[in-house]
Design goal:
12 helices; globular; Jelly Rolls; five-stranded antiparallel sheet; about 20% strand
Amino acid sequence: MVVHSVSTVSEWEALASATFVPVHVESPVERFMGTLDHRGDHEWGVTAIRNGAGRVSRTNDLLSSSPDDMALFSVQVRGTSSVEQDGRVAHLRPGDGVLYVTRGTYTLTFPEAAELAILQVPVERLGLTDMRVREMTARTLPVRKDAGLRTFARVARSLFTDRPVIDDQREALRVATEILGSSLSRRGGGAARPRSHSALFAAFDRIIHDRLADPRLDVSALASAENVSPRTVHAVFADHGTTPAAYIRSVRMQRARRLLTSTHLPLVDIAVHCGSTDPSIFSRTFRRDAGMTPSAYRQRSRDL
């Protein structure tokens, strides 16, 4: 994918308008810098953005010329911002999210350089009533404190890494939208929605990464966390060509490799970080996976 970079406000306005909907952009800085990495198409996609201080506005004149009905859900990664719509203002810090829609006017204010990820999707795909959508716009949502929103953010942001949670981009967008719609509905008092196996897989993946150091992490723990049966857990991982135990072991070995090459932690501490209370068992597991002991792997990485 191409990462677009700009160095003027007019270029940023043109790029943002082409990616999302027509907007006006202003900035107080002399040299405005921005980058945009988009996955998907104009109707349905995820965009990673880094931009300088400024203001983005969708005004009444732009509504009449481009009556798009898109929902935008933004997750603040770095810096701060605010979103104004429907008479409300949401103030965002890293780890916060906010919903706004292109059918109405809005103003995004960035008092400093910021980084964010935005899902854009036709409003109807969220499965929310118009009234519920209006109630949810421009409200600060703490993503880090909401399991569903954390799963959504992980799926969306992983599309910009070499290890996406869902390999197929279109399916990843569908799953992110499903999880977001369900989370917003639940926040508005709606009933729990049935979840696809792909959405459950994303939830299990998030739980595994959150609890990787927990030696009690197993099928029963995953089933209990998501209120499903152990049989369902096995079925979900079978759909992805693996087993829960194999997936947990794989993720733990990925962490072990990273810690061995990027830290000076003793092997006993790395074992604990990877969910093992016995360093000898950890070493045997690592050797079966990597073909060498943890010490040999660490030494080889330093010799390269």
